[in-house]
Fold this protein.
Amino acid sequence: MEGEKQYLKNMTRGELAGFFSEMGEKPFRAAQLFRWMYASGAASFDEMTNLPAELRRRLSETAELFTLTPRETLISRIDGSRKHLFETGDGNLVESALLRYDYGNAICVSSQAGCRMGCAFCASGLSGLRRNLRSGEMADQLLLARRELGADVGRVVVMGVGEPLDNFDELKRFIETAGDAEGPGIGRRHITVSTCGLVPGIERMAEELPQVGLAISLHAPNDRLRDALLPVNKRYNTESLLKAARAHLARTGRRVTFEYALMAGVNDGAACAKELARRLSGMNCHVNLIPLNRVEETGFGGSGGAETERFRAALAACGVRVTVRRGLGADIRAACGQLRARAGY
Ligand code: SAH
């Protein structure tokens, strides 16, 4: 691969040290670079004033500091949330959303360019999967958003475009870097990964990333409905998914979050609420209701305020912990399910 530049952010701290030793550099130089990239969020090698000028020159010839180029930022007039559009070195588009809450900032990171899960109501899978994102491409979504905001980001949710558990190895490397105290320092307890229901991935999470929060996009209480909405259910049915959720809880002690997008006349009736409550009974979990956000192509509509409240109240009456999620960034199409790997807004 002579002549091709190395993407430094795709390397873990250990790999970076190896790369430096091949260049004949001391390990502490790699540690310095790591801090510049992730803790300081340096925009160029020139800023790295404690690295010798000669090393900086060699790095700029052989390596890329960024895996992504910012293309566009949209800022919500409603709530100040932002949507970032980036381009990868090979021309794929990547979106992230920076969400502003009273208690701090969170970044919603994409894990793939496109998605192959094919959920019937979601924009992200409309054109299929382009490719998995590398760990550095996930890290740069965080670093570039943080830099542009000029403020810290305390939480990461892997809920953007893509199915993170379909890209487990790179996800894990990203989480390792994000949590590094010498880097962004976002500990695993402040990271949540959301899945549409890849059971083997959930099992791996419990074993390999037990401190990371798990969110499951459930959206329906039974196989009949779930089969129709989320094709993944034909591989891992509702029962096996809920079993994996319970096993995750038992192994990690962390409360599982279930996301449930309310679709008018599809999954928002009293019978669904009752069945959902029954299937979740006795589990330490939390249900997040999200009135479906509009995606032109899908034909599904979000439930109204009255239906949403009725569904919430029905679950609460059965003892289920439940909240209605505030949809941030709706005016810039940064809300759940509206991100898509395509430009032209
Ligand atoms: N693939 C993972 C990560 C994406 S998270 C997963 O499915 O969990 C994005 C969340 O938004 C998921 O819960 C997804 O089901 C939900 N979603 C998709 N389309 C939506 C829409 N139009 N309105 C509201 N939520 C939607």
About this structure: The pocket of S-adenosyl-L-homocysteine is lined by residues 117, 119, 121-122, 159, 163, 194-196, 217, 259, 261, 290, 292-293, 295, 336-337 (CB under 6 Å).
